[in-house]
Amino acid sequence: MSVVAIPTRRHPGTRPTCPRTAPTLTITLDLVPGPLSPRLARLVQLLGELAESGEGRLRTVEDLAPAPRPAPSPVGEPSADAPHVRILAGSRMVRQGDRVVPLTRIEYELLLFLAERPRRVFTRLQLLSNVWGYEHAVARTVDVHVRRLRAKLAGSEVVTTVYGVGYRLADEARISVDHSR
Comparing C-alpha atoms, which of 78, 81, 82, 105 is closest to residue 94? Predict the structure, then answer.
């Protein structure tokens, strides 16, 4: 896996603005073992050239220090023996351990959407567009459905809030999608 961070820089001749940290573009590539495809090799080469030109810098995951994680809270924390959540896509059922979890259509679609795209953060508007199918709703609608989904899957940390951005599947989520059932 490679991570590329390219902070923007001010072009000559533009007036200075108030001091703030430079925005960063992070591109994450999940690489399979073996040689790179020609298109992917070209992308990595172009990103390297951009970094060498002084427009940014190229760093791999190994170069990055792990971010400090907040201390876990003992209340509501999923344990190592938390029940595994299985999404049976063929029958549109969700099972948590041995029990069937009754979800509404939107809750099911939201859970499936996040489970099929782990480690990606989605804004409320992206979720409205991709799960609900429209963008003309109050973005806080997503918050309500996430809260209900968390309540129904109590004991399993499934959805994580990325403050100021949106939601994603939790790293600790014990979840699998079975498309055959």
Answer: 105
Q: Would you call 15 exposed, middle or buried from its count of C-beta atoms within 10 A (0-12, 13-18, 19+)?
A: exposed
What is the secondary structure of 106-175 as a DSSP string?
Answer: HHHHHHHHHHTSTT--EEHHHHIIIIIS-S-S-THHHHHHHHHHHHHTTTS--EEEETTTEEEE-TT--E
> What is d(CA 56, CA 53) in angstroms, rounded to the nearest whole number?
8
Indicate the average pLDDT of the chain.
Answer: 75
For residue 174, the model assigns a pLDDT of: 87
Give the range among 68-82, 95-109, 119-133 with minimum mean pLDDT: 68-82
The backbone region for 175, taken as left when phi is positive above 0, alpha when psi lies in -120 to 50, beta otherwise, is: beta
Whether the predicted pLDDT of 103 surpasses 60: yes
54 pLDDT band (50/70/90 cuts)?
A: low
Contact present, 159 and 167 (Cβ < 8 Å): yes
Q: How far is CA 73 from the centre of its chain?
A: 22
Q: pTM of the entire structure?
A: 0.55
Element of type H or E holding 43: helix 38-52
